[in-house]
Design a protein that fits this description.
By secondary structure, the protein is an alpha/beta fold. The chain has six helices and six strands; from the N terminus they run βββαβααβααβα. The protein folds into two domains: 71 residues, Methylated DNA-protein cysteine methyltransferase domain (Double Stranded RNA Binding Domain, 2-Layer Sandwich); 80 residues, Arc Repressor Mutant, subunit A, CATH 1.10.10.10. The strands form two sheets. The protein has a four-stranded mixed sheet. A two-stranded parallel sheet has the order 5-6. Strand 2 and strand 3 form a beta hairpin. It comes from Ensifer canadensis.
Length: 187
């Protein structure tokens, strides 16, 4: 596992390693084929998997998403989760089974659960996904739920395409989406 060096990271208040509470989010950062990957865990499970160009950008994004929470960088404590994410990127056929802490509306959570049921190597349209979650006239709301997903890969919103089959926007970049779909298509 290629962990990002955190010597340049501005220290934040820390608590004992491995200790989590309702006001703490532990996170770790690693380098992957897709770029920098940040995985964050709260008391309820993995609450974010972010992908970007650099660790500092991802740390700012995490801080913006969890205002008022203490952020504790702890690659050692998240070694297992980081390894699973990196293995998934390399071999999406293995799947990615992590305990998730989902924060969202009822519709968002239904969409995210439906996304988790889409097998690797398969894509679905926003309209088809809307039908699956019982909201057949709400393709736009379903697309917004996909866009609100902050748990990349474990909630595979990259598997959703436009009705034309074209790739639609992806929070972590259309090229990353293209790469993920292409890797999964080889399964």
């Amino acid at each position: 596992m290629n962990l990002i060096d955190n010597r340049t990271h501005t220290p934040r208040p820390r608590q004992a390693v491995g200790v989590a509470n309702r006001t703490t989010v532990e996170y770790g950062v690693a380098q992957a084929e897709l770029g920098c990957v940040l995985i964050a865990r709260s008391v309820g499970g993995v609450c974010a998997i972010l992908i970007g160009a650099d660790a500092e950008q991802l740390e700012r994004d995490l801080a913006d998403r969890f205002p008022g929470r203490a952020l504790n960088r702890n690659e050692a404590g998240l070694r297992t989760e980081l390894a699973k994410v990196l293995r998934f990127i390399d071999n999406p056929g293995e799947g990615l089974d992590l305990p998730l802490a989902l924060r969202g509306t009822t519709l968002q959570r239904r969409v995210w659960q439906a996304l988790r049921a889409i097998p690797a190597g398969t894509t679905i349209t926003y309209a088809e996904l809307a039908v699956r979650v019982g909201a057949p006239t709400s393709a736009r709301a379903v697309a917004n739920a996909c866009a609100a997903n902050v748990i990349a890969l474990a909630i595979p919103c990259h598997r959703v395409v436009r009705s034309s089959g074209e790739l639609a926007g992806y929070r972590w970049g259309i090229e990353r989406k293209r790469t993920l779909i292409a890797k999964e298509a080889m399964l």
